[in-house]
Amino acid sequence: MRLGLKFLSVVTSMAMLLILLGGALVTKTGSADGCGDSWPLCNGQLIPDPLTFETVVELSHRLVSGVSGFLVLALCVWAWISLGHIKEVRPLAFISFFFLVLQALIGAAAVMWGQSDAVLALHFGISLISFASVLLLTLIIFEVDQKLDATNIQLGSKMKKHIYGVILYTYAVVYTGALVRHKEASLACPDVPFCSNGNGWLPVDLNQWIQMGHRFAAVLTFVWILAAFIHAVKYYRHQKNIFYGWLTALILVIFQAVSGMLVVVTRLQLELALAHSLIISFLFGVLSYLTLLATRHTHN
């Protein structure tokens, strides 16, 4: 039974990742209207005709989201019943399913009635919370047989501030990145790293301010994670989960920055744009794991 729960948790985590990538693919290929304004049907049909590229992308995203919903529900119920005695399981199960339903409702509302760019930008962030919750459930399931021991954590107040601060700030930066996509501001500043537009380096319109604001916020994310990693090197090398957690976060934020620059340089090459979304999903997952560890800490 425990083996089956582990298998389901891994499959569900992968499915949630596909939702994130699928949503990014819909946005980046302009396929949001691929099924018209009908939901859950596509152009008023179960199997739409004709099947354009945009329709296939949007319909595939809906199908993956639907299947993932059943997987998340099954995982949450099974984990609730089998591991409900572990304090984090029931809250994570609730958050996983609640935010999955919420992102589905926002997506459906956007199809039928339209939404502002600000609200649509929340869609990715909400999906990210659901993914991170499922990922944490998976890690807890693998902890049960002590193959992944993360229960004896000792943290000082400074490290806790780093962990809580970085994940909240990174989530805000994710929102600015989603806003860049939905405002179609990805190439508002086609040069890296500054916005050279003939009038100096300062942005001159709203889209350029959104783009440069996201870049500045992303740089601060790197600086903060680097500072947290240096603190972990000095004081937490013996706590492998903390040390390697920050090391992984630092590597991912570097790849995230490089992929972001390449997206601009290559003028929105699709594979790089999807990699950019994938990396931030992994980064948020690692930061969520560190947050889980911080809630278990005992004072030094």
UniProtKB/TrEMBL annotation:
Principal subcellular localization: membrane
Complex and partners: Interacts with CtaB.
Transmembrane segments: 63-81, 93-114, 120-142, 163-180, 216-236, 243-266, 272-294
Organism: Priestia megaterium (Bacillus megaterium)
Known catalytic reactions: Fe(II)-heme o + 2 A + H2O = Fe(II)-heme a + 2 AH2
EC number: 1.17.99.9
Any one GO biological process: heme A biosynthetic process
Broadest EC class assigned to this enzyme: oxidoreductase
Superkingdom of origin: Bacteria
GO cellular component, one term: plasma membrane
Membrane topology recorded in Swiss-Prot or TrEMBL: Multi-pass membrane protein
InterPro entries hit by this protein: COX15/CtaA_fam (IPR003780), COX15/CtaA_HemeA_synthase (IPR050450), HemeA_Synthase_type1 (IPR023755)
Pathway noted in the entry: Porphyrin-containing compound metabolism; heme A biosynthesis; heme A from heme O: step 1/1
Binding-site residues, heme: H214, H276
One Pfam family linked to the record: COX15-CtaA
Protein's recorded name: Heme A synthase
GO function term, MF aspect, one: heme A synthase activity
Keyword Nucleotide-binding in record: no
Its job: Catalyzes the conversion of heme O to heme A by two successive hydroxylations of the methyl group at C8. The first hydroxylation forms heme I, the second hydroxylation results in an unstable dihydroxymethyl group, which spontaneously dehydrates, resulting in the formyl group of heme A.
Family named by the database record: Belongs to the COX15/CtaA family. Type 1 subfamily.
Keyword Transmembrane helix: yes
